[in-house]
Each structure stands twice: as C-alpha cells, then as structure tokens.
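Revision sheet: structure tokens.
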Amino acid sequence: MNAAAAPHIPVLADEVVDALAIAPGETHVDGTFGAGGYSKAFLDKGAARVLAFDRDPEAIRYGEALAAACGGRLTLVPERFSRMRQALADRGVDEVDGVALDIGLSSMQLDQAARGFSFQADGPLDMRMSSEGESAADFLNHAGEAEIADVLFHYGEEPRSRRIARAIVAGRPIERTGQLAALVRKALGHHPGMKKDPATRTFQAIRIHVNEELRELEGGLEAAEQVLAPGGRLAVVTFHSLEDRIVKRFLKSRSGSSPARSRHLPAANESGVPAPTFEAVARPVRASAAELAANPRARSATLRAARRTAAPAWGMNKEGAGG
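Predicted:
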C-alpha cells in the first residue's frame, strides 16, 4: 500500500491539535493511526512522543516509514484503542497528556475495494478492520433473518430493515460487495439520481457489527479516562449520530452534568456517584466550509473535546465500577 494509491486527508486536524493544546515535551496518544495524519501533526507541533494505535495491520505497516524517520518519537501499537491502558503500561507509560480518537473508517480502508467496506467498487465482502474474526460475508450467510434485521435497524437506523433482511436471506450465499448492494437496491427500490444510495445504511450497520465499533468506542473512552493525566485533553471525532451520542453521553456523565448529580460536589455523593473526571467540555465542532470543499468526507464529522480532572477514573475505583 502506498499513499498515492490510498490518499488520506485527516478530518478536523487543526481543530484536534488545538483541542489537545499540544506543548513541547508532552506525550500523546493517536488512538486511530490510519495514514498517520494526526500523529504527524502532533509531532510537528512539538510532542516529545506519540503512541499510535491501530488494529489494522495494513495501517501499522504503512506507518513504519514515518516511525523510522521520527527518531523514536513515534511508537506504533498494533492494538485496539480500547486496550490502551494495558498497551501503554507494557511500554512503560502510565499517563499521557492527550488522547485523540478518530472513529470509523479511514480513507485508505474505504478506498480499497479488496477490503470490502464500500459499494462504490465490487470486492470481497470482508469489512474487517483487522484480519481476525467474523467477516461480513460470514455474518450475512449464517445469521438468522431476525438477527440481520436487528443489526440493520440498530446500527444503520434502517427503517426497512426487515425487508432487506428477507432479501439477504433469500439471496444467500453473498460473497461480494456488489452483490449485497444490488440486493439492497432491489429490495428498497433504486433509480439513478437518488440523493443517497439505499445501500448506505446497510453497509454502515454491517461494518459496525462486524468490528464491534460502538462497544470499542465505549471501551476507548473509558481507557482514555484511565490514562490521561490531570489536565490532559481528550478529543474525539465521530462521523454519525450513533457514535456522537455515545461520546456526548460519556462526557455529560463524566463531567457531572447528568441530572443525577450536582457538579458542585467535590467527591462521591451519598448515592455513590463518583466525582467528575472531565471538565471544560467544549461545544461540538464541525468542519468549515473550506475544509468541506477540500475534503467532502468531513461533512458528517463532529469533534467533541474535554479536559481531565484529578479525580480517579470511574472504572478504577470500587464506587465507580460500571459507571
């Protein structure tokens, strides 16, 4: 894989760097390395060390040249970001000054037909971000109709999920992205000039399911809470409402803004609710008109950011377990 074959423009890069307030000498985590856009920006800004996570082995291989050129300042971590705390500890890092997460697909993954993420070009129906586990074809060819419908409804917010699930089961075996897209289009009705391809929600839902993306996001937010030093910054870029709701809910809860507790309490209240672990929660940021013109994929991106307090992470003390 090379950059020319898989161009990638990091979304909201300047805004993410600003949200992290990177200062020379600091250590930051790029939880979603991809093509290295954020990592390079962090290093250019003066970060002493960047630890870059990615579960995609192709992304790690792609980043080896950048890591080699950085004189030890960039460490590639071939791991899920939800396992951030242990992976950092294994490398002698207990806390960091910033964590950035760019949720969803990288342009490199989306643009490679062989990865099976997109219906824009026919390819094998894979969709796995790593090379492990159940592929999209495995799921669609073995799951029951009700389970497929539930995945499409909950992860794709597809109102006609049952109709699509019936078409998928009737059309099995399904092995190619073009085959799946054709089944969905036929089931829902498709004509040239439609504003949105009817297969879009189905592909999103199956990808989220196969990669356990929403569970991974929840785990990544908790891991970031555990590894950020007091005053450390968290910046998360999401690309659809399901992801954004998870981040918004997490920051609202962890900042003490939930109705169940008072933000003025310095420690756990009588009901056992822990002290806030985040503060200075910023307003959501979206791409500027200039960025949208240069990178249309930024149109659905939302950045949320906050600063870590000195309170113990909720998952790290008995009272806050499961919070």
